[in-house]
Fold Cation:proton antiporter.
Amino acid sequence: MVDQKARAKAGAGDASGSGGGGGGRTRRLASFLSVYVLLVLVPAAVIVVLLAGGGLGGEAAHSSVRPTPGGTGHSVSRFLLAVAAVLVAGWVMGALFERMRQPRVVGEICAGILLGPSFLGAAWPGAANLLFPAAVLSHVAVLSQLGLVLFMFVAGAELRPALLRGQVRVVFMVSHAGIAVPFALGVALSPSLYSEFAGTEASPTTFALFLGLALSITALPVLARILVDREMQDVRLGALSLGSAAVGDVTAWCLLAGAVAMAGNASPVEALRVLAWTLLFVLVLVGVVRPMLGRLVSAGAVTGPSDEALFALLVGGALLAATATEYIGLHAVFGAFAFGTAVPRGSEQLARVLGRLETLTLFLLPLFFVQVGLRTDLGAGGWRPATLLATLLVCAVAIAGKLASTGAAARAAGLPWRDAAAVGVLMNCRGVTELVILDICLELRVIGSSLYSGLVVMALATTAMTSPILDLLERSRPDGGASRHKDGADVRPL
C-alpha cells in the first residue's frame, strides 16, 4: 500500500515536471538566445559598424585592406571559374555527342571551340576575357598537361600484347602500311603548304616530318573506346584493328621522337646523344623497372604495398619517366606511355589502382581536349581560299591515304572487302593521339595557327565519321553483321 502511494506520488511529480517541461524548455531557449545575442550578434554588429564607418583609423586603414584586382585571391577565383566552365561545358557537349553515338572527345573539343575565339571570343569578347584571361589559360594548360601525361600512362598500361599473337605479320603489315602511305602523302603535300602555313621555327624538313606524322596517326585510346561501345573488342576484326593501332602508335612515338629532336635543330652529334639516352631509358625500363614492378605487384596480396602506396608509386613513376624524356629531348608523353608499357598485367590490385587513376583522368583529361578547342581559332586565317583549300587538302589526303593503305593491306591478308574496309575506317580514327601530335607541333612552332585549326578539323572529321560508316558497312552485310559478332573473318598468315 505504501509502495502504491509512493508510485502515485512519483507519477504526480513526473506529470508536474512534464507539465512544467514546456516552461522549462522556453526558459532555456530564452537564456540561450540572450547569451547568443550578447556574445555573437552584438560583436558582429560592432565589427560591421567599425569596418563600414571607418572606425579603424580613417580612410588610409580602410584602403590598406582593399584587395587589388591582381591579387592572389582574385587569380585563384578566376582559375577556379575557368576550370568550372571548362568541365561543365566539356561534360555537356561530351554527353550530347555520346547520345549521337560519337566519342566524348569530339564533344569536348567542340566545347572548347565554342568557348574559344572561334565563337564566344568573336560573339562576346568581354565574356571570353572574363572566363579565360591569358594568365589563367596558362594555369589551365599546365593542369591539362598533367591529365594528358597520366592518360598516356594508363593507355600504355592497358595495351594488351596478347592481341598480336598469331597475327603478328598481318598486324605489322596493316599498321606500317597505314603509317607509310599517309606519311609519304603528307611529305609530298608539305612543299605546297610550307610558305603559307609553317610555324616560325620550322624548316622545310621538320615541317614535312610533322605534317606526315599528323596525317598518318591512329588514335589507339579512342579506337579502343569505339570497339568497346560496339562490342567488337573481342572479335577478330576488332583485335586486328586494335593490335594494328597499337603497333602504329609505337611506331608513331618513335617517329615523333626523331622529329622532336630535329625540330630542336639538333646536330648529328646531338641527335645521336638523344638516341643513346632514349635507348638507355628503354633498357632501364625493360631491365630494371619492369622486373621491380612485377615483384611488387605479385607480392601485393602478401607483403607488398597497399593500394594507396602502389597508386603513389605508379603516378610518381609516370611523372618521373615523363620528366626524364623531357630532359632527354623528347616529349613528356613519350616517357609516360613507355612507363605504362612496363607495368605488369594480370594483377587484381593493379586493375583497382588503374581504375582509380582512370577516374582521376576523367577529371583532368577533358581540360586538355577543351584547351585544344580554346587554342583553335577557325577564323585565324579569315578562312581565305588558301586556308580553306589547305584544310580540305589535309582532310582528303589523310582520309584517302589511311583508308586505301590499311584497307588494301587487310584485303591482302585475306579479309573480305567489307571487313577490310572496316579495318580501314577504324584505322582512320584520329582523336587523342592526333591532338597530342598537333599540340607538340604548335608548342615547337613547327606549324602556324591556321594549319593547326585545319588539322584539328581533320581530327574531328575522321573521328566522327568512324561510327556512321561502320553502321553502313554493317547494314550492307547479307546477315546484318551477325557473323562478325561470332568469330569475324579468317585472316591467313602472310
